[in-house]
Amino acid sequence: MTFELYPALDIRGGRVVRLRQGDYAQETRYADEPLAAARAHAEAGARWLHLVDLDAARVGGYTLAPLLHEIRAQTGLRVQTGGGVRSEADVEAILDAGAARVVVGSLAVREPARVARWLGRFGAERLTVALDAREVDGEWRLPVAGWTADSGARLDELLARYADAGLRHLLCTDIACDGMLAGPNLGLYRRVLARVPAVAVQGSGGVRDAADVRALRDAGCAGAVLGRALLEGRLRLDDALREAA
């Protein structure tokens, strides 16, 4: 299995930003223009881009279709993207705009039966289920609405359900690690992979350097999402790509 890297661009108000642990009140803005940033990643050797509509993640209504179209036309990157996906029509529209995979987050937690049916309709290669987890009293819980609301759902339950439905691509984030540059939660990924060994798991949150990329690969992940470390120049994409190889 090829270990893939997913440089991430989180977009809010048309700008590249990062949130600290998913908190919209703790936003860092970057000077990079989104299309130029995507182009730079492609020139450095990336094959994929992880594109997130943070505005839509809270209220629905994916807004990045024009940007997605331009990224595909100008860079050739394969784009995994989501934010605000609420319906089959949303999935169709994002795929039609050029996405290789659509990321479904909050709805995948709130309505797993519905999203499981989408795996059958669109195919397991066209969807990535995002289960973003926060450990509370020893349990891994799954908040929704841009990580602002408790869904009541538990990670282990949904892992089993989606594996049975034929899930292929899972994006899993430890919210406590997100944007913290303190290293990924390797224990979480080992736990996930022990429960769903046939699923390609993307590690997300906390990656600081090439050693963290290597650690995720060695833990059995199929890929890693790279955010703040790339944006702030702490990690060079070409160094990360060498570790991925």
TrEMBL record:
Catalysed reactions, as listed in the record: 1-(5-phospho-beta-D-ribosyl)-5-[(5-phospho-beta-D-ribosylamino)methylideneamino]imidazole-4-carboxamide = 5-[(5-phospho-1-deoxy-D-ribulos-1-ylimino)methylamino]-1-(5-phospho-beta-D-ribosyl)imidazole-4-carboxamide
The EC number(s) this enzyme carries: 5.3.1.16
Record SUPFAM superfamilies: Ribulose-phoshate binding barrel (SSF51366)
Chief location: cytoplasm
Subcellular location: Cytoplasm
Pathway connected to this protein: Amino-acid biosynthesis; L-histidine biosynthesis; L-histidine from 5-phospho-alpha-D-ribose 1-diphosphate: step 4/9
Keyword terms of this UniProt record: Amino-acid biosynthesis, Cytoplasm, Histidine biosynthesis, Isomerase
Domain of life the protein comes from: Bacteria
Keyword Cytoplasm: yes
Example of a GO MF term: 1-(5-phosphoribosyl)-5-[(5-phosphoribosylamino)methylideneamino]imidazole-4-carboxamide isomerase activity
Keyword presence, Acyltransferase: no
Major enzyme class: isomerase
Example of a GO biological process term: L-histidine biosynthetic process
InterPro entries for the chain: Aldolase_TIM (IPR013785), His_biosynth (IPR006062), HisA/PriA (IPR023016), HisA_bact_arch (IPR006063), Isoase_HisA-like (IPR044524), RibuloseP-bd_barrel (IPR011060)
GO cellular component: cytoplasm
Active site: 10, 132
Family from the record: Belongs to the HisA/HisF family.
Protein name: 1-(5-phosphoribosyl)-5-[(5-phosphoribosylamino)methylideneamino] imidazole-4-carboxamide isomerase
Organism classification: Bacteria, Pseudomonadati, Pseudomonadota, Gammaproteobacteria, Lysobacterales
